[in-house]
Amino acid sequence: MFDIKEAIKNLPDKPGVYLMKDEFDHVIYVGKAKVLKNRVRQYFRKSTNNTNKIKRMISLIRSFEYIITDSELEALILECNLIKKHWPKYNTMLKDDKSYPYIKITIGEDFPRIMLVRDIKKDKAKYFGPYVSAYSAKETIDLVRKMYKIRTCHRVLPRDIGKERPCLNYHIKQCGAPCRGCVNKEEYQKNINEIIGFLNGNYKPILKELNELMLVYSKKLDFEKAAEYRDYIKAINIITERQKIVKTANEDQDIVAFATNETEALIQVFFVRNGKLIGREHFRMENIEEQSSEDIITAFVKQFYAGTPYIPRELILQNNLTEVKIIENWLTAKRGQKVYIKVPQKGEKNKLVELAAKNASITLEQFGDSIKKKEKRTIGAMKEIAEAINIKDEITRVEAYDISTHQGVATVGSMVVFEDGKPKKSDYRKFKIKYGIGPDDYASMNEVLTRRFNHALKEQKELLLKGMDSLEGKFTRLPDLLLMDGGKGQVNIALQVLTEVGLDIPVCGMVKDDKHQTRGLYYNNIEIPLDIRSEGFKLIGRIQDEAHRFAIEYHRKTHNKIQINSVLDDIEGIGPTRRKNLMKAFGTIEKIKEASITSLSEVKGMNKGISENVYKFFRKDN
Description:
Elements: H1 4-9, E1 16-21, E2 27-33, H2 36-43, H3 52-60, E3 63-68, H4 72-86, E4 93-94, E5 102-105, E6 114-117, E7 126-128, H5 134-148, H6 168-171, H7 185-199, H8 204-219, H9 223-242, E8 244-245, E9 253-260, E10 265-273, E11 276-286, H10 293-307, E12 314-317, H11 324-335, E13 340-342, H12 347-377, H13 379-388, E14 397-406, E15 409-419, E16 422-423, E17 429-432, H14 441-465, E18 481-484, H15 488-501, E19 507-512, E20 518-523, E21 526-529, H16 535-568, H17 576-586, H18 589-594, H19 597-601, H20 608-617
C-alpha cells in the first residue's frame, strides 16, 4: 500500500520529474520541478487557489513516483519524453502528430543526391524545409533533378564508376551518368551549388540562365529544346508564387498564435524560411479548461518542438511562456545554435502574429465541426470500443493480427497498428512462419505473437540496462488492446502467449458472420454485438480489412518467390543467375513453359543443352 504522506516526507531537494498515478496505476499527470520537494507537496496542501481541473486530478491520485535529474533543463527534456510516452489525462495535450517532409542533399558524397525525407539526422547532409505540402516538395525535387541531371541511384561513387551500365534515367536524358564518368566531380558540384542557391530562394540567376537558353534554342529553330526550358521557367514561377515574401530579416522563424473555445485550442503556425512564408499548419490542443494563455502556448511549444526535427532561429509567439529561459536553453541545445523566443508588441513581427491568430480563429470557427467529426471516427471510435468491452483504461494503441496461407505453403503473419484510430504504417510488421507445419493457423498465430512479445521484452530490457527508458525499438511499445482475426480459438491462443511471457493485455476476437462481414467482438468468453451504425463498429471493420490486406499482400510476394524457386531450381543447370535471366526475359513461369528451345537458347547465359533441360522439364509429364 502506497503511503502518500510518508512518500512526501522523503521527497528530495533536487530538480526532476514527477508522475501522478490513479488507483489503476495509470499515469494521469506528468510535471517537472526545479525542486521536487516543494512542487509535489503543493498538490496535497489544502488550497483554494487550485483550479477545478487540478482539484479533480488530485482527488484521483493514489500514488506518485519521481525521477531526479541533474538540472532543470534535463527535467524539461525528460518531461517531454514522458508526456509523449504516457499521454496523461490531465496534461494539456497536443493531439496532432504530424510529420513534415524535408528536402535533403547528401553533400557529404562526392556526387550528391537529392531526396525527400521526414527526419533530420546528424549527418553531413544539407536539409531544406519543412514543407507543409509533400506534393510541393516532390515537385521541387523532380524539377531540379531534371534541370541539373542529378543522379537518383544508390551506387557508391567514385568507387563504382564504370562497373555497371547507366540506368534508364541516363537514356531518357534525366541523369548525367556520373556512374559512367560522363560528368566530372567539379561540374557536378557546380550544379549542386546552384540547386542549394535555388532551394535557399535565390531564383533570379537560374531564371536568367533559362531565359537565355530558351532564346538561344529558339533562334536555332530548335523549338523542342526551347519548349523544355520554357516549361522549366513556368515550373519555377509556380513554386516561387507559393512562397510569399515576409517583411522581416532573411531568418528562419516559426510564428505561433492560437484561438480557443470552451474545450480546445487551435494553434496556427506560420513557417518562415529565409524570409519566405513557405507554409502554415494548424494543431489542436485538448484539456485546456481553466488553463491560461501562457500555459497553453507553453504546452504546445514543449510538445511540438520535442517531436519536430528542425528548430528555427526564432520563435515569434502570441504570448510569453511560463518558463521562457529554460525552454530557450533547451531549444538552443537541440538546434546547436542560439534560439530566440520573442513576443513582439509592434512592427512587422507583431502583424504576422496577429495574422496567425486571425487564421487560428477562422479555422476553429469554420473547421471545428469537421475536425470533431474526424476525431469521432478515430479517437471517439476507440472510446466506443473500450466502452463496449467495459475497459476503464483509455485505448490509444491497437494491434491486429492475421495469418495468410494457401494449402500450407508460404504461411505468413501480419501485424497492423492503429493509434488514436488511425493506421500507423511505420509500426506494421511482417512475420514469415518458421516452425508452423502445414495449414495450422493456431500454431502460426502462436509463433507470431510469441516472437512479437519476446522481441518487445528483449528491447525493453536492453534499453533499461542502457538507462534509455524514453527511447523505443521496433517492438518496444506494447498495445492497449489486441484484436485477433477470429473468435474464441484465436483469442485463447493470444491469451496463452501473453500468460507465458508475463504480460496482461486485453484481447478481443473480431467475429464475422456467414457472409464474412464483421458481426461483433469476442471478449471474456462472451460475444459482444456492436451497433453497425457506430463509429466503433466501422473502425473495427477498417482494422480487420487492413490486417487481412497486409497479410494477403505479403503472402503473395512470398508465395510467388517460393514458386519461382521451387520450379526453376529443380532443373539441372539452372542456378540463381540463369533463373534471374530467364525471369527477366520471359516475365512468368507460364511463358518459360511455352518457350521453344531456340527461344530459351537466346537468353543470356543459356546454351543448347541447358535449354533442352528446361524444355523437357516442363513436358516430362505429357
